Amino acid sequence: MFICDHTKLCLSFNEFHDLKADDLPEYGEFCLLELKDGSYTGGEWNPKDYRKASTEGKFIRGTADSIEGEEVAKWHKLHGYDLSALLEEDDTARINMGHKKEDGYSVSFKDFKLIKDRDFPKNEQYCLLILMDGTLATGRWDKWSDEKGGCFIYAPALASYSMNKVWAWTPLSSDEIFSAEEERENERLREEELNKNPSTDPDKFKYGIDINIYYEKALEKLSSQYPWASLEQMKKQKPWEIVPLHGQYVFGQVNTSYDGYNYVKEWTDGSTADEFIDFLCEYTRKAVEDSNPDAKFRYGRDIETYLDKAYANVKKDYHWAEKKSLQKACPFAIKQIKGEWEFVRIYRGGGEYVCDAATAEEFIEYVAHDYRDAALSVNPVVAEHEMKFGHIEIHGWNLERYIFYKLKSGDYKVSVTAGDRVTGGSRTFFITPDCFEAKTYDEFLDRYLEIVPGESFGLLKKDLQKDQKLKNFLGY
């Protein structure tokens, strides 16, 4: 374990390079950077064209977080250092990165804090790091929502150093992301202070500040048109609340951002209580319409009736599917939830999900969708054919894999995978038997491309036609 006094530690970086075409970092190299405005940061060099020596490119610091090369004056590599031996000496105070020359350019960083002391940076603060293995890095602090810790993000797709990999840190210069985060935190504190004693508009809240009173008055109006209407049905649409905002009560919806902050969407379509009640009627109308028990449970409240109809729909094409195995893999029920009868999907471990189905037919198709996925998953693959292709971009994503599979039942499915530098995903499609009823391969492809459109998933008819092995694989 490192025993030097971190409060006296100073890292001096010497032998900086000017960012110019004939003196560039290697592709993917992490660097300490001095910007042309005199501030300091870090990042991974990503040239615009790695085959050409040019300062066109950027230093990547994280997802959607980078510095353009034109903003950078000097760079100093961070990789290649191991400070372990020096940090294990109790009298270590200054460590030079590179030879220190008289009149040579250098910059020093001190005021290090230890992660083990629970002394964390401010959120979104970009920092110079000494890792537990004695190497150097940089990263942007991303605090956990419970504020008991966090991690340092340093590359796309939220690549990060966990707390237990960092020994000490010190902040680098403020940047736009950190400044914006500081301003947002200051605004949140100002908002908290304003909302300690909110005022009340007498016209807007003439029925008080209990939101249920306004919902009940809206329900009275809706019930004349929809006799089955209830408060629970109305609140299937994201509910409105009465909450403080900027020092006064408002009708609003409270939302939570990705990083745990709450923000209020204020109702602004009127200025009186009765106008808000009329708004509630229109806002919740669709949810009430879709809760008509006569349409939703037109086949009664025996779940087996709906499951049998869904299975019959699936069995037409998925001829190997067995009813018992599908029902075991995808259990459903009709249950009373908060006083309302609902179709419910039951998950392993006891979780439940209320199915958003307005009619019996919508629910039957919902069940059939899950049954189809379950049926495909139990049909073993016996052969596969992977398509070969060059670079294909689909609406900003890059096609990665396109594979046809032959199943034990003699049927076929196809899996398409695409992504970008941050995320990606796969979709699997069953090639329905009616495609193979085509008399010619050309007609087969026309039917197939209605299931997996070329414009949406990367390969067009002409791309598929020129693969003779695929034609043979599909039995033509």
Molecular structure report:
The protein contains 13 helices and 26 strands. The termini are far apart. The strands form six sheets. A six-stranded antiparallel β-sheet has the order 2-7-3-4-5-6, with no helix packed on it. A six-stranded antiparallel β-sheet has the order 10-15-11-12-13-14, with no helix packed on it. Strand 13 and strand 14 form a beta hairpin. It is 26% helix and 31% strand. It is flat. With 476 residues, it is of the alpha+beta class. It folds into four domains: 10-176, no CATH class; 211-285, no CATH class; 295-377, no CATH class; 381-473, no CATH class. The mean pLDDT is 93. Helix 7 packs across helix 9. 24% of the residues are buried.
Main attributes of the structure:
4 domains; 476 residues; flat; six-stranded antiparallel beta sheet; alpha+beta
